[in-house]
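Each record in this resource describes a single protein on a pair of labelled lines. With that in mind, the following record should read easily:

===
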Amino acid sequence: MEEVGMSLVSLLRAAWILITLPIVVGLVPFPGLAWLHTILTLSNRGKILQSNSKLTVPQRFFSHFYAMAILWTTLLLVAMWSYATTSHVAGGESHANISVFLLVLMELHLLRRFYETIYVFKYSPSARMHISGYLLSLLYYALAPLSLCCNFVPQVFDSVNGRVGMSRPGSDKIWMFVTPFSRLPWYAWIGAVIFLWGWVHQLCCHRILGSLRDKTKNPEEYVIPYGDWFEYVSSPHYTAEIVMIYGGLVIASGGVDLSLWLLFVFVVANLVYTAKETQGWYKRKFEDYPRNRCIIFPFIY
C-alpha cells in the first residue's frame, strides 16, 4: 500500500503542475502564444465569457462544485478522523492531526461557498460558463481536499478496513475524538486565525457583489462595486481567498507539504488570471472605473 500511496501523491502533484503551467504561461504575453490565451478564455464565466460556443451551462451551476466537494471532503474527513483517533496515532505526535484540521477548515470554506451560491449571489439569467471551465472546476474540487491528506491515504485505507488492528477508544474515552485538535502545533492555530479572517472577509466582499443586483432594475445590467477592499483592488474576494484562506492552510500545515504548495500556486495563478480578465472587462465597459484599483494585490495593476 505504501507504493500505491506514493504513486497517488506523485499523480496528484503532476496534475497540479499540468493544469497550472498553461495558466502561468498565459499570464505572460509571449509572442506566438495568443492561441493559448484563446484556450484559457474558455474557462471564463459570467460577464467575462467571450466565447460564442453553445457548450455552456448556467453560472448558477457553481453550486454543483460545492455540493460535490462537501460530500467528498466529508468522506475524507470522517476517514481521516477515524484514522487519527486510533490508539497508535492518538498516542503520539502525528501530521495526521494536522490533516484532520485542514479538512475541517476546508469543509467550513465549502459550506460557506455553497450557502453563498444559493442565498447571496443573484446570477444574471444570461450568466453562463463554458463546459470546459465547469469540468475543470469539478476536477479542482476533487483534487483540492485530497491534497490536504494525500500522504495518509494508504494508512487510512488500512485503518478503515481493519487491517491495522489497533484498538478504538471506548465509550468512556470519547474525549479522544478531540485528540487531533489537542495535539496541534502552534503554527496550525496561527494558520487557522488567518484562514478565518479571510473566511469572514470574503463573505463580506461576496455580500457586496450580491447586493449589486438590488441597485438596478435590469437583471442584465452591471454596476461598479464599491466599499471595503473594493476601494483598493478590483477583486478583493480573490485576495481574501489567496492570502488568507489558502495561505492560512499552508501556514497551518507547517509549509512542508509540496502537494499543498502546488495547490496554492494553482489558486494564485488561476485567480490572478481571472482578476486580470475581470478588471479589463470593467475598464472597457465603464469609463468612470477607478484607474487606481490594483488587479488583486497592492501595486499590481
